[in-house]
Amino acid sequence: MGWALAMQGGGGNIPRSLPPDITEPRLATLRRCLDLGAAALRAGQPAIYIYIYLSLMSPAALNADIYIMQVRELENCPHFNAGRGSVLTADGTVEMEACIMEGLTLRCGAETPHIYLAFHAAEAFARDQGLDTQDDDPAAYFITDANVERLRQEQEKQRQAAGSDRNGDSLQTGTVGCVAVDAAGGLASATSTGGHTNKWAGRIGDTPIVGAGTYANATCAVSATGVGEAIIRHTVARDVAAVMEHRGLDLKDAAARAVGLVAVSARGEVAMLHNTAGMFRACVTQDGHTEVAIWPPGEADSTDDAD
Description:
This protein has 307 residues and is an alpha+beta fold. Helices cover 26% and strands 20% of the residues.
């Protein structure tokens, strides 16, 4: 069925009454990333290049000059809960998580002798690899007024409802993620997040955990969004692949068992499913199908185009 690309910008209790000044910047960023990804896949680039659109690795490391002016779209968009838009911990700090996985080789995570690197070691490794950093004044870049206010509101709600199991601001609980299958059938998944508002400092969610929030093999690639602890317990991303492999289900039937994700299969199928009010999402396929949406199909935000 050819190449395909799908992205998600987080799901949650997203009200249909959201004004355009909130929805449009997110949708516009998804559209830009979709165009970049489609151009790369159309030109025969491998699926693993999707990490460029999430700014998970320096484009210079690939000698891919064509991307230098087109990277960091999702993470640099302050409207998404990743990179610059990351929500704040209970301590008022930013702690981000990310993961990438290549399906054919099963390379994943930090792509060093170790799969996981965290905190100061991860920052040191990033600098050694030549990634751009915000060392001069990271607080000015990452800690936005909007997220300071979200933290204040969330902590006030927690004080008013002691013992609440709330999991953060519904407009910023999700990750950003991208999955792709290239023309040769190669699959890759990449996910990035700031976690959820008012989380404990040091909390690690599902996004960087291979098989939970991010997974790719020779069958499919999956990027999940939602409540991280539940996604970890149910190994959501790996479960989709396992059901396809062991029960012979197609991608959409397999993904429907664990909604809150975007996924593509080696055959070029796409699934973008959620069990919340909405999920920022986008996809494009080689046969010309394009979709950019928030709420269930058929509502005003959705766009389907055939080229």
